[in-house]
Amino acid sequence: MSALLRLLVSLATGAIFGFGLSLSGMVDPARVIGFLDVASGHWDPSLAFVLGGALLVALPGVAIQRRMARPALDEQFHLPTRTVIDRPLVLGSAIFGVGWGLGGLCPGPAVAALSIGLVPSFIFAAAMAAGMMLYDHVLTRK
Amino acid sequence: MISYWPSLAGGMLIGLSAVLLLIVNGRIAGISGIVGRLLDGQQIGLNAAFVAGLLLGPWLYATATGHLPRVVIVASTPVLVVAGLLVGIGTRMGSGCTSGHGILGLARFSKRSLVATCIFLATGVVVATVMGAWR
To answer: Which run of H or of E encompasses B57?
Structure first.
């Protein structure tokens, strides 16, 4: 029963996330570039409001989570445990930022926008999926 | 004059989504992690359900407002391919993207996420600004 509920919660939270990306304008790569390009003469600060709004809710949310022994529908929290700032974190984040600055697309908006059906969205998403699998299966040889 | 209220409200919905997934399912709403694990065949049901919801998002927005969100992709095909490869490799290598590190990581006061967010914002700004001057 709780397995089915977890699926429904994943679906619903994905939908809220996608709706939020749409409402905020972050699903639009031109808008993202307008934020990242600080010398365009018409800088668009709206992305800072997206991140700020998300943190406004996430900060108290995490405070609530810290008081919970376990999540509502699972035995335990599945959270990252690493704390070391290592080379893959630094190098990977730098590589991601370069790709983000080139196209104005990060994974969330790239996936959400697929349902709108624009050809460039599919080209980017296919390359992104290839990059993920390349890293997970070839570069790290798990 | 662009109004920032939709950006703020949309950001709050993204935060709400992340908090619900965290306190109900106990998982981090990091899109690169969710997509990466889905491609890797891990927890297919949960990750596919989240992705399905994400795809529904723009259409729920269209139902509520009467129009789909604006999506304008200016980059050429070769640039998109390079950008996609870099985003795919970088987010897996760096264990997260704008959502996992930039929202939940920061909210959890993770030092790794703070470092990651500063780095991808910095390189993103540099590359977009240089590309903008070049165009």
So the answer is: helix B44-65
CB contact under 8 A, B89 and A106: no
Dig out the tokens for A131 from the structure: 């990059």
CB contact under 8 A, B116 and A106: no
Min CA distance, B43 vs chain A (Å)? Answer: 11
Residue A142: band (very low, low, confident or very high) from pLDDT cuts 50, 70, 90: low
Closest Cα in chain A to B71: A28
Helices and strands, number each (H, E), in chain B: 6, 0
Q: How far apart, in whole angstroms, are the C-alpha atoms of residue A121 and residue A108?
A: 12
Q: pLDDT, tens digit, for every residue of A73-118?
A: 999 999 999 999 999 999 999 999 999 999 999 999 999 999 999 9
Query: Which residue carries 């969710």 as its tokens?
Result: B34
Contact criterion met (CB < 8 Å) for B53 and A78: no
ipTM metric: 0.96
Asked if the C-beta of A43 comes within 8 angstroms of chain B's C-beta atoms, the answer is no
pLDDT tens per residue across span B35-73: 999 999 999 999 999 999 999 999 999 999 999 999 999
A30 and chain B in contact, CB less than 8 A: yes
Identify the closest residue of chain B to A108 by CA–CA distance: B31
Domain count, chain A: 1
CB atoms B39 and A133 under 8 Å:
yes
- Best B3, B17, B114 residue to mutate vs chain A (most A CBs within 10 Å): B17
DSSP state of A114: G
* Residue of A39, A53, A69 whose CA lies nearest to B14: A53
Name the residue range of residue A91's domain: 2-139
CA distance A86 to B94: 9
| Whether A96 contacts chain B with CB within 8 A | yes
